[in-house]
């Protein structure tokens, strides 16, 4: 009987050690994830909507000007996965990235809201597209769990009730997060994933 419990203890220790091992860190350097903003009416009456948009491309930042202006560097992310994500044969899910990187999808709600928003959920992405949103593809690769020097990235949603007042934001700064929560216009939804400080 003692050897049975001793075996269980050894098994538990090996299991705990295996779970404690961190997923390896990706050796190359992540890139800047820019945050740009379009304020409703900034270019005249009835022009645009309040919209935060995020991109790794400075060309996209420049092309969006003057409607969008650069606010800050949100954080750092990866532009691509180290493991190709081919469509799975016969259904199922693609093989995971060896560094626990997951895709961050960018969507656009084209109705009167004109809102860019982000998810790591393929299911949420596909349901939104089926409901009329436009998929703009994978905009970045981020970690699905903490580690490797990452910080959490929260998704917020705000709606002031006006025709163009809907807006999603991604936030990594704890002070900005606290300010948004205290301000009342935005509601914290959840942690989207984990990214590297700007």
Description:
With 198 residues, this protein is an alpha+beta fold. The protein contains 4 helices and 9 strands; from the N terminus they run H-E-E-H-E-E-E-H-E-E-E-H-E. The chain has helices at 2-20, 58-64, 122-130, 174-183; strands at residues 31-38, 51-55, 69-77, 101-109, 115-119, 134-143, 151-159, 166-171, 186-195. Strands 2-1-3 form a 3-stranded antiparallel beta sheet, covered by helices on one side. The chain starts with a helix and ends with a strand.
pLDDT < 50 runs, ≥5 residues? 4-20
Q: Mean of the pLDDT scores?
A: 80
**What is the CA-based Rg, rounded?**
20 Å
What count of structural domains?
1
Structural class by secondary-structure content? alpha+beta
Topology (elements, then pairings):
Elements: H1 2-20, E1 31-38, E2 51-55, H2 58-64, E3 69-77, E4 101-109, E5 115-119, H3 122-130, E6 134-143, E7 151-159, E8 166-171, H4 174-183, E9 186-195
Antiparallel strand pairs: 1-2, 1-3, 4-5, 4-6, 7-8, 7-9
Please provide a brief summary of the model.
This protein is of the alpha+beta class and 198 residues long. It has four helices and nine strands; from the N terminus they run αββαβββαβββαβ.
Using brief descriptors, characterize the structure shown.
3-stranded antiparallel β-sheet, globular, alpha+beta, about 200 residues
């Amino acid at each position: 009987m003692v050897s049975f419990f001793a075996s269980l203890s050894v098994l538990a220790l090996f299991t705990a050690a295996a779970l404690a091992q961190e997923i390896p860190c990706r050796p190359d350097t992540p890139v800047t994830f820019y945050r740009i903003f379009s304020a409703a009416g900034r270019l005249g009456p009835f022009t645009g909507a309040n919209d935060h948009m995020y991109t790794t491309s400075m060309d996209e930042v420049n092309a969006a000007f003057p409607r969008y202006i650069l606010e800050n560097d949100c954080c750092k992310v990866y532009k691509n996965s180290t493991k190709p994500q081919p469509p799975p044969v016969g259904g199922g899910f693609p093989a995971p990235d060896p560094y626990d990187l997951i895709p961050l999808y960018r969507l656009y709600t084209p109705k009167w809201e004109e809102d860019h928003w982000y998810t790591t959920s393929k299911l949420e992405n596909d349901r939104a597209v089926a409901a009329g949103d436009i998929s703009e593809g994978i905009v970045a690769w981020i970690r699905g769990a903490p580690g490797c020097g990452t910080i959490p990235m929260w998704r917020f949603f705000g709606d002031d009730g006006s025709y163009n007042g809907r807006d999603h934001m991604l936030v990594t700064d704890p002070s900005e997060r606290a300010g948004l929560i205290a301000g009342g216009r935005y509601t914290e939804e959840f942690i989207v994933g984990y990214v590297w400080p700007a």
